[in-house]
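Students often ask why we bother encoding 3D structure as a string. The short answer is that it lets us treat folding as translation between two languages. Here is a chain of 65 residues written in the first language.
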Amino acid sequence: MPKMKTKRSAAKRIKRTGRGRLLRSSPGQNHASTVKNARRMRRLRAKKEVTGKEKKNIETLLAHD
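And here it is in the second language, the structure alphabet:
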């Protein structure tokens, strides 16, 4: 069976930390920012950790990253 390739679209969006956690950015910050308050925009800038079943699925996409 051939080697599994890394899904580059996933690799560009998700970063692996030194401890093996996966961090992603929040959706919802590209447009309509005038109707969102400053606190909400600041929280959207923060990175979120990928957990649960999603983490398992994403780790298969990042198999050789």
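Translate back mentally: The first strand starts at residue 14 and ends at 16. Keep this in mind for the problem set.
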